[in-house]
Design a protein that fits this description.
With about 325 residues, this protein is α/β, with parallel strands linked by helices. It is built from 13 helices and 9 strands. The protein is elongated and about 80 Å long.
């Protein structure tokens, strides 16, 4: 009776139940669980330790990582009815806002795993149907970048600078803009560690960019537009700083219903409709506007849209003035 009482007390914690719901679907390491549950790493580790001591969760090492999953013995014998009850409760709570938020973050972690599977290789990726040595979306993106001429690029809303540094591999110069000085310092430090020297870091907002007119060949807004106070103004500013003949490139989320991103991630907008993005680029004076799906996965509430538009070429006199401004 004491053992049963301790087990029920252990499972009387919401965070531990959320953790078990995730581990019932996928084995995960502490860092991944921290991201999925949006909890402190120390708390996740403590919960895992208690569940492991109770025999509900097991630990296994693989590829330099420590993973956790439900114990194969949980749900057999005396705990069979308990495991079935928990699973029924998990299924019934599918529409709960907290569960929906956990599920969305879980799908994002799984998506990142697939894109970086060489760092997460394990039994699930050793299957011959899935394992393709050397396959890497990051490598493909870098290879395609090398096919481009040495363009001047603006990374607007650059954040921690990961995309900035990738663009710096093929760009002649990257102008990286973000509103946070602290974030820019971290991004600049990362660039120094990677020995990237062709980036200029600037503090500024999307609706008032600290860049001259016609300053860059490509202006990028990657997952930044849904943070903007005025998305249409941000697109217009991106068009302003783009040279005639250059392009504005957007990556953002398609409209969704995941309200938790407002408080957890600071999103101002719950994504954009395809036609809404098209109209914003057109209103900014861009031509040949294209909007399409960049990434989508069954069960994931987030779909990434890619939108691009070209800035119309100007006449000879205007082009001469623009060149003078760039100097």
């Amino acid at each position: 009776m004491r053992q049963a009482s301790a087990l029920y007390r252990l499972l009387g914690d919401e965070a531990r139940l959320r953790l078990l719901r995730v581990l019932a679907k996928e084995r995960m390491n502490v860092t991944e669980l921290t991201g999925v549950l949006s909890l402190a790493q120390s708390g996740v580790s403590r919960h895992l330790g208690l569940l492991k001591d109770a025999g509900i969760v097991v630990e296994e090492r693989d590829g330099g990582f420590t993973y956790y999953r439900l114990s194969p013995t949980f749900g057999s014998g005396a705990t069979g009815a308990l495991q079935a009850t928990l699973q029924a409760q998990f299924d019934a709570a599918a529409d709960d806002p907290t569960v929906r938020a956990d599920e969305a973050r879980l799908q994002e972690v799984l998506r990142l795993r697939k894109e970086n599977f060489d760092a997460h290789a394990g039994p699930d990726t050793r299957d011959a149907r899935q394992l393709v040595p050397g396959r890497s979306w990051a490598a493909w993106s870098r290879a395609l970048g090398l096919l481009l001429p040495p363009l001047k690029v603006a990374d607007l809303g650059c954040g921690e600078g990961y995309l900035t540094i990738e663009a710096a591999r093929w760009a002649s110069r990257v102008m990286a803009v973000d509103r946070s000085e602290a974030v820019l310092r971290r991004a600049a430090a990362l660039a120094r560690r990677r020995r990237v020297t062709n980036v200029v870091w600037k503090k500024g907002t999307l609706d008032r960019l600290p860049l001259h007119d016609a300053a860059v060949d490509v202006a990028m807004l990657s997952q930044a537009l849904h943070h903007a106070h005025d998305p249409a103004r941000a697109v217009a500013e991106a068009a302003r700083v783009t040279m005639p003949g250059g392009r504005v490139l957007l990556l953002d989320l398609r409209a969704h219903q995941e309200e938790w991103v407002r408080s957890k991630l600071g999103d101002r907008r719950l994504g954009f409709g395809d036609e809404e993005l098209r109209k914003m680029l057109t209103a900014a004076g861009l031509a040949d506007v294209k909007v399409g799906v960049g990434a989508r996965k069954a069960g994931d509430p987030f779909t990434v849209l890619i939108a691009v538009g070209a800035k119309r070429a100007m006449d000879a006199k205007a082009a001469k003035n623009a060149k003078r401004l760039q100097r």
